[in-house]
Amino acid sequence: MIIPINDPYAASACIDVLRRGEIVIVPCDTIYGILGAVPETEQRIRMIKGREEKKPFLQLILTEWITGLAADPVPDELLSLWPGPLTLVVRHTGGGTIAYRSPEDEFLRALLTGVGRPLYSTSVNRSGFEPMNDPDEIIREFIEDVPLIVDGGQLKERLPSTILDITRKPWTVLRQGACRVPTG
Question: What structural domains and CATH numbers belong to the chain?
Answer without folding.
Answer: 2-175 (3.90.870.10)
